[in-house]
Specification:
8 strands, 17% strand, SH3 type barrels, elongated, 3 domains, 5-stranded antiparallel beta sheet, Alpha-Beta Plaits, alpha+beta
């Protein structure tokens, strides 16, 4: 590589800065045109992906400009690129892995902006997708998950208010749970314990009626979605979408488990409305919910003896 004089070095610096400034100006113009052409909230997703493409092209153009201006011959250009690649592969292993995860996410359709996912132990809605990190609007946890790490104070699948950034390399280390990508429905369950001696059949019919009233429209949509899902994946026999009650006998009560379908985005709202109807129906039927209680039926006989002290 030829030695540069002071004037030659200054010239290369100016050329590099001018070309990079030109690339940044063109990128800003492209983003501005995208915002003007795609106005309105309904175009947020196309606008996001256009910005992603512009960022990738800008990064590639800057790298090529720097290398091309500062490397004179073709052989030297190739050698420098080899050195740079080897150095980056050693020094930036996690960064490269995260960027590879970004490519896998895009190419493999693992998830996209707006999907509800669980990734790296974080559950929520994807609100941004970058080269290195995925940004998630975090959701709460059900009571059975309250002890999971990180600790959570929200007792349902609703926003906690925290924005969490997860590195994209997690796609190689942990499963990615997607609640909305190919199938925008899920099954939920509610368990009602009934005392032995109460009419569990009446409670079962009441649970089915309430579930049908609140989920019939979702069940119809889900049936159509299952047909499309079976066309894309091997699913075997289609699962039931109509509400179903399962009965289990325990030492203390009859346990009725109501299984029904909901959309992931309003599961807690549906369960709240159903719970209120169930309480009203049980009160009308004069049937109580069983609970683990203990009754003391008899006290043991207690004898008290007084011992006098000896007199001197």
């Amino acid at each position: 590589m030829p030695q540069l004089s002071g004037a030659g070095l200054f010239e290369k610096v100016l050329i590099t800065m001018a070309l990079i400034a030109g690339v940044l100006i063109v990128a800003a113009l492209l983003r501005g045109l995208a915002r003007l052409a795609l106005g309105g909230e309904s175009r947020d997703r196309p606008r996001f992906w256009i910005a992603q493409v512009v960022r990738l092209l800008t990064l590639a153009a800057v790298i090529l400009i720097v290398v091309r201006v500062w490397v004179a011959g073709t052989q030297e250009f190739t050698a420098v690129m080899g050195w740079v690649t080897a150095g980056l592969a050693i020094a930036l292993q996690r960064v490269i892995t995260a960027f590879a995860g970004y490519v896998i996410i895009l190419r493999g359709n693992a998830f996209t902006v707006g999907d509800r996912i669980t990734m790296g132990g974080v559950r929520g809605d994807v609100i941004a997708l970058g080269f290195m990190q995925t940004t998630v609007m975090e959701m709460g946890q059900s009571p059975s998950e309250q002890a999971d790490d990180p600790a959570m104070w929200i007792r349902g699948r609703q926003y906690s208010g925290r924005i969490v950034r997860v590195t994209n390399d997690k796609v190689f280390d942990t499963p990615i749970y997607n609640y909305t990508r190919d199938f925008r429905y899920m099954w939920e369950e509610m368990t009602i314990p009934i005392r032995y001696g109460d009419d569990y059949r009446r409670v079962e019919q009441m649970l089915l009626d309430i579930a049908r009233r609140h989920t019939s429209d979702v069940a119809a949509e889900m049936s159509e979605a299952l047909v499309k899902l079976r066309g894309k994946y091997f699913l075997g026999e289609p699962p039931e979408v109509e509400p179903r009650v399962y009965v289990r006998l325990t030492d203390n009560w009859t346990e009725l488990s109501l299984r029904f379908v909901v959309r992931p985005t309003n599961a807690r709202v549906v369960k709240d409305a159903m719970s209120r109807d169930i309480l009203a129906g049980l009160a009308e039927a004069k049937i109580g919910i069983a609970s683990g209680t203990y009754a003391i039926v008899e006290f043991p006989e207690v004898k008290v003896a007084q011992v006098g002290s000896a007199r001197s």
